[in-house]
Amino acid sequence: ALAPTEESPPKIGLSLYSDTTDDPPLQPPALIKRRSARPIRSSGTITVAYSSTTGTCADLAAAMVRLIRSKIDPGLGAEVQMCKVDDLDWWDEILNPPDGEEDDDGGDGGEEKKSAADSAALSTVPPAVILILPTWTGGTLPVDPAHPSDQPGLLSVLEDVANDWRVAPNPLRPSQPSSSSKGEGDANPGLQVAVFGVGSSAYDPDTFCRPARRANELLVGKLGAR
C-alpha cells in the first residue's frame, strides 16, 4: 500500500454516495466493542473516520473536521466527530440504528430524554460519514496494529454484510415509518457517505485508491448509502 511520502503529495479522489432499508439485528459475536462516541447513524452526526500509517490520512481527517465545523451552521446543532476506521464496530453501526438500542443500556433516564430530544431537534440533519482511506501494499487497506487480529476490518465487514442473505437489501437507504410504526423514531434516515482515497501517484491505475473505490462500491452500490 502505497502510502504517500512527504516529498510526493498524494492524489486525492473524492466520491459521493447514495441509497437503504430494514435493519435486521445481525452482529457477529466477535464484534461487541462499542466506543463512547455517537453511533454513526444518529441524526445530526457527521463522522470523519480514517485509517493511517504514515499520518497523512490522520492529518487530512483533522483538517476535514476543522473545515466542517467552520462551515456548518451552529444552529443546526450537528455534532462532528473523528475516529479511526478500526475503532468502529461496522456490523453494529450498519445494521443496528441507534433508535433500536436506546432502551438497552438502562441509565438514569435523564440522559435518554436528552438523547431523544436531541434526535428530534436534529431530525432534519441526516447522518453522514466521511471515510479517508490510504492505499497500502497491493492496493490493500492497512489495519491498525491495535486492532484485534480476530476482528475483520472495514472492507471485509462491508463485503460480508453486502453478501449476507439475511440482510435486507439496501440497509443504508432512507425510509419512512411504516403504517404500523409507533412514531417518527421508526423512520430510517439512511446514511450519506463520502470517500477520500489517498495513495501514491506512482501506483498503477488499478491499485491507486483501490480501498476507497471498493468502499464506495459496497456502501453505495450494495448497501444503499447516499
TrEMBL record:
Gene3D superfamilies from the UniProt entry = 3.40.50.360
- Indicate, by first and last residue, each region the UniProt record lists as having compositional bias (Polar residues): 173-182
Q: Which PROSITE patterns does the protein's record reference?
A: FLAVODOXIN_LIKE
Q: In its UniProt entry, what is this protein called?
A: Flavodoxin-like domain-containing protein
Q: What segments bear the compositional bias annotation Acidic residues?
A: 99-109
- Flavodoxin-like domain mapped to chain residues: 46-226
Molecular function (Gene Ontology), one example: FMN binding
Which top-level group of life is the source organism from? Eukaryota
Region (Disordered) residue spans: 1-30, 93-121, 167-192
Lineage here is: Eukaryota, Sar, Stramenopiles, Ochrophyta, Bacillariophyta
